[in-house]
Structures are given as C-alpha cells and as structure tokens.
Amino acid sequence: MRKYCSILLATVLSCISVGVAAEDDCEKIIKDSKRLACFDKQGQQGATLFAGGLKTYKPNYFMLFSYNKNRADQLVTGIDTGLDADKTEAKFQFSFKHPIRLDVFSSDVDVWFAYTQKSFWQLYNTENSSPFRESNYEPEVWFEKSFVSAGHDGWHISKVSAGFNHQSNGRGELLSRSWNRIIGSAQLKKVLSDDQKLAVDFRLWRRLSEDADEDDNPDLIDYMGHGDVTAIYQSGPHQVSLQLRNILSGNSRHGISLDYSFPLRWSDNVRGYVQYFDGYGESLIDYNQKNKTISLGVAVAHWL
Question: How many structural domains is the chain composed of?
C-alpha cells in the first residue's frame, strides 16, 4: 500500500513541477474556436466553491441525522472495537478537485488531482464522548479528456478518464481497510432544456494486487464489485442521483444510493439533502455488513 501511495504522491509532485495551468490561460488563446472550447470545457469541470480555485468533485454534504436501526450490530464482526454505537449519528463528506495540468502537450487532455473524505460521527453518543466511528480517505489522480460536441439524439460523451485511486480508513491492525485501483470512466450527458439535464457516469476499475501479508481485506472486491453506474437528473435547483454498484454479480452484495437535493428558502447556496443507502460498502470498516441507512442534512454541491 505504501508503494502505491508513494507513486501517487510522486505523480502529483512531478506534474506540479511542470507547472499548473491557470484558468486564465483560456483568455490567452488567439484562435476564437479554441478559446471558446477552452471555456466550455471549464464549464463542465465543476463549480469553484473552495479557496484557491478548488472545484467540487463528488457531493459535499453534512448529514445531521443518519439512522440505521442495526448500527450497533454492524460494526466489525468478531472484533471488539470498544464502541457501543448509537443507531443515529452524523455523516459528512467533502470532496474537491484541482487541475494539475491542463491541455498536456497540446493534446486536450488534462491531469487532475482530487481528494474525498467521508466521515461517520457518533455526534449524539455523548456517553462515549461523541467519537468518530469511521473515516474514509480517498485521494486520486487521473487523465481526462472532455468533449463539447453534440451526439445522437441529444446525448453526447461529456468526458472520458483513466487514473489511479487509493482509499483507506487510516486505522491499524485488525481495523485497517484499504485498496488501490486503476479506474476508467466515461460520462454521457443530455441537455433536456435550459434548466434540465441528464447525465450517466460509468466507471470500471481493477484492484491492484498486494502481498498477502499486507492485504487488509482480500475479499473486498466481492462486495464492492468491479464498477458502478451513477445516473443524475437535474431540474433547476432540484437534483436526483441513483448510484448502482455490484448489482450484476449474482451474489446480492449490491450497493445502492439514492440521493435528492432541493432548494432551501433561506439560502441560495445551501440545499437540503436526503440520502438512502441499501447494501454493502457504505464505509470501509463494515464493507461486508449489509446496511440500510436513511440520512437527512444539507449540501453545498451535488453531482452536477
């Protein structure tokens, strides 16, 4: 695992040493068609909500209430974690990305870095000092090519990408969970009207092998599968997404997440957020335990 993390860090640092292309570079392009295409591509790359030009990547939310009636029984089978978990907890995720290099070698291919963290917080478990039950850390780096031309029946390939992904929970001994993947993805998008969009993200991955004595979870792929599909529908400020994982494996070890974000009267930037998860892999620590979790909170960014 340390070897792959070192490769990830070296890749990021080496690309940064070549130079980070600023968004203002679009203004420097002389040819009108290429300059407009540059701005169009940036419009697809996400909203800038963070300091330093960082863009949102995956949904950014804070769930004040995340309920699972079997939470206490689904921590880690056969391992004493020392925590008597409450059924209701808080859950949050923040996710950002930043271009390492745009238009590498004038090829219209960009290099990106992203970081996503999802944490499960026993906020209401004051008897145990409100501990964090689990946190998952997910850095990744990838090459991406975006497209702006229209396709068949309004659908077009928005972007394709390939890269390296690391995910772990940062814990030791029997509670350690981690895996490394090479991920390829493609996004299809269709504009229905001025304020309505459809998008479908397809991801396939291959887990990188580890030495048997270093593999914390050799059966992880049996529960996480080899890819996922995320469908997103946006209508004005409303957005619905459905993510399906490992549903064709035939072993019923699926993972399904249905998310809905909606406007709030008191804020133009913060949205209400509801999420229902059913299946395996909601977090790494209990990847092999089936969960049914309903969560309610707020978000500052969804998928689109």
Answer: 1
CA distance 166 to 184: 14
| List of the chain residues with pLDDT < 50 | 5, 7, 9-23
The C-alpha atoms of residue 172 and residue 182 are separated, in whole angstroms, by: 24
The catalytic position among 95, 146, 161, 166 is 166
pLDDT tens per residue across span 42-89: 555 566 555 667 899 999 999 999 999 887 655 555 556 667 889 999
**Residue 198 belongs to what domain range?**
2-301
Annotated catalytic residue, options 168, 178, 241, 261? 168
Residue 209 DSSP symbol: P
Active-site residue 238, yes or no?
no
Residue-wise pLDDT tens digits, 159-191: 999 999 999 999 988 889 999 999 999 999 999
Indicate the pTM of the whole model.
0.84
- CATH number of the domain where residue 162 is located: 2.40.230.10
In angstroms, what CA-CA distances link 16 with 6, 98, 108, 147?
15, 11, 18, 24
Name every residue whose Cβ is closer than 8 Å to that of residue 86 and which is 6 or more positions away in sequence.
71, 72, 122, 124, 125
Active site (annotated) includes residue 226: no
Q: What integer pLDDT is reported at residue 10 of this predicted model? A: 47
**Do residues 258 and 275 make contact, with C-beta atoms less than 8 angstroms apart?**
yes
